[in-house]
Design brief:
Length: 221
Amino acid sequence: MSKINSHRKGCKDVFNAFLVATAKYAGEYEIPCITTSVHVPNKLISFTKALTTTDFDQWVHFYEHDYLFECVWKFPKNYLGLFKKFNGVILPDFSLYRDMPFNMQISNIYRSRAIGNWLQKNDVKIIPNIRFGDERTYKICCEGIEKGGTIAIGSHGNMKCKIDRIIFLKGLEIIVDIIRPSVIVVYGTANDKYFSKYKDQGILIVQFNSEFAIFHKKEVQ
């Protein structure tokens, strides 16, 4: 374990080892650990909009297409100053599609946590984003997350199709059982039919409409 972050003289850092230079790891797949706190976002802004806004009294999120924020993985230092201006950051939501190779699903969980570990070391408030693909990632996506804090999930795009909804809700049950969060930030729908049982457990559900839903609501009006 101690050699994972060892310095290799003369070698280019091709996998962003600096992000986890002092990290501890959890589980068989060595997911970087992050500490959690009870944060309750006042409002959210997508990463792409955060690049041009002057309103920093909000939290940055990454619930948008991966290609729009891949730059944060490639050049994280370029955005540290920006993130420090905001109230905090919900960690990157790298995609975990069910038809994606399993090793890529694990890699995307790792990448989000590596960025989170580094942001914390640089005094940026974070909320871990919990994203899972198929059943194999239900528990892996929880590794390295302290119990009892705030987590974020994206329900947008996961509730309309029956199969997607079943997999999403089953995964949600498992992560709540493992992490025991005190707050769940939901980007997308949080219908009481599915979330009331978590409220009954004393978990605060903080829901934000997706930009897609807001846009179509304006169109209807």
